[in-house]
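Dear colleague,

Thank you for sharing your sequence with our group. We've completed the structure prediction you requested, and as agreed, I am returning the results in plain text so they can be pasted directly into your records. Please verify that the sequence below matches your submission; if there's any discrepancy, let me know and we will rerun it promptly.
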Amino acid sequence: MKPELAAAANFRPLRRVASFGIVQFFLCLAIGISRVAGDTVPEVSVIPKPSRLEMGQGRFVLGRNTFLTVVPGTEATGQQLASLLRRSTGLPLPVRRSPAAGEAGRADSIQVTLSGDSAALGEEGYQLEVLPDRVVIRAASGAGAFYGCMTLRQLFPPALESSVLQLGVEWSVPVLRIEDKPRFPWRGVLLDPARQFISKQGILRCLDWMAYHKLNRLHLHLTDVDGWRVEIRKYPKLTRVGAWADLGEGVRIGGFYTRQDIREIVAHAAQRFITVIPEIETPSHSGAALVAYPELNCFGTRRSIAPFPIDPLCGSEFCPGNERVFEFLDGVFAEVAELFPSPILHVGGDEAEMRYWGECPKCQAKQKQVGNLHAWFMQRVTDLAAKRGKRVMGWGGVAKGAIYTCWDNEGSSGWAAAKSGWDVVMSTGNHHYFNYNIERTTLKTAYDFDPLPHSAGLTPEARSHVLGVEACLWGEMIPEDHIESQAFPRVLALSERGWGVEKPDFEEFLGRVKTHVNRLAAMGIVTGPGFGHPIQPALPARAQDAMPPLIYPSCFNRNDEDWRWTLTGIDRGQGYDALYPLHAFDGDLDTYHMTWGPRRDVDSFTIVLSSPASFDRIQAITGMPNGDHRLRQGVLEVSTGYGRWQEVARFKNGVADAALDDRRVVALRIRSTINQPPNAVLAIREFVLWKNGKSTLRELSPVERLRIPAVIPAAGR
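Please find the predicted structure tokens below.
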């Protein structure tokens, strides 16, 4: 009898979503897998939840004699796993090439093989068997073997994910057996470096956490009104001119990826079985290209890019009546196709205002020839992409045969498209737009979305056209250093529902999230809040020098000052609901309040303290680390009661800092002293008060950062 079968008596069933349907599993059942009454089941908090899981008894422990074995097709994956394990454990963990089945019976090994059942596991499935003396990962492909290794990582203690050596930890995993494969082939994340540039290292870091959660498509929104981010040799002004924005006061922001940068990103993704989908927007959202080459616009009127959020020429479309536009796109597509091996090119296609098309003689002449000008334009774009071996994907208005990215609020247009034979990726506004803050799109909202609900009435044929899900992290309000806190923990919901859960259970999922955030913390990932509810600054402070809570929620203000934030232009759909004002005074520099719309002279933002107190110093911090979204000109004021406002500091480079000399404070406010341009939204990161060396800044644990409300017992219990 093979050793792995003899060891099967260590297993007992914990949860079976469906029968394994493989010979080995039934043999294991026949020789003694049984439930033992009263045994404690080891906690397994893998995300996404495996399709089928059987728990056993005992644990496999890494030791100084443990080694990894690989076969052709798993060498790189095995080396990645060994490198990660060595980093935190300090163990040697040599990697050996297995001669066929020669290592199958070796104890104290982690075996990564390609001996899985391809019919049962498909391209991305795997089997993971943890025995007391060895671990075996079987898959039919390299991707499956990689995902098996990602699951194994999550079975170890969270300290495994640390970048430095961890001492005093038992590096063990529970005995179990998993058979797992995804329900959907498309599990994606959109990053938007066009609106706020993301460094190459930032992209690589995102690829790492995507792979850890079995996400396999990175959609890069590379061009828009705000910037052009990919080097095109044939058109150098795209990056020399179109990649940069002048914010005034000597602040210039932007950037782009060189061809070598793109090659590194694509290679890093490929090693993690992630496909990078480039997006070149057409015909709209093309302002940065038109700044560089204004002759591609109908009237050549583009002069500067608009960093955010208002494009002075709303739409910024290419001119369909100008044949040079198609020569330009053909040249761009040729170089993009060379850099990105993905079979898919995203071309946008939506939100074309077309106002200037109606005024352009060339466009009107072309429309008389072709009829629907937009449809004709998108067919030309589709043909140019096909010429380069690419299938088109788009947000809307794309030609038949393209993949439709459904971004409506609830998904109805996507299911309708699937019924009509379109391939669809669900990226719904209410569930997958993680640029919205947690008050608008909660963790539960993200988790509850079913890509294939019974209510949609999809036939088996239509269901096959729903390829999967994709979360969007649009860059308007997310600088690079906030991507992770905005994405997490909601990416965990995307990962789980995109992989596929037969019987979703949010409360059970939440229990795993509370364990998983400690792994994320070990990786250096700061999660955002987990629920949408009024954020109370009274969260437990972990820093020894933190001051007690100082602020009333608006509904409990009993002070003599009005609670108010009177900034104009606040958008109730996004700027207010999505970015809660209390983020400006929650003791956390990783959160912020973002207004929507330009700041006007005398606009103010007021904070009222829970009770009058004296302080030594006050700081007001606006803007993002890159210098964007800050208060260009304004004052910081404090009130000693009944509207007695006094200026204590002026803003310089977005920050005001004042010594208060033990002054009594009832309220404090920021006041603008200038009309700012239409694109000058304001980010208020934090008010910080100081007293006797202590401040209002706080350090929260990963679980505290989820901001899960305490459960209040019912009366009488």
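Summary note from our side: Residues 186-523 form a domain with the TIM Barrel fold (CATH 3.20.20.80).

Kind regards,
the structure core
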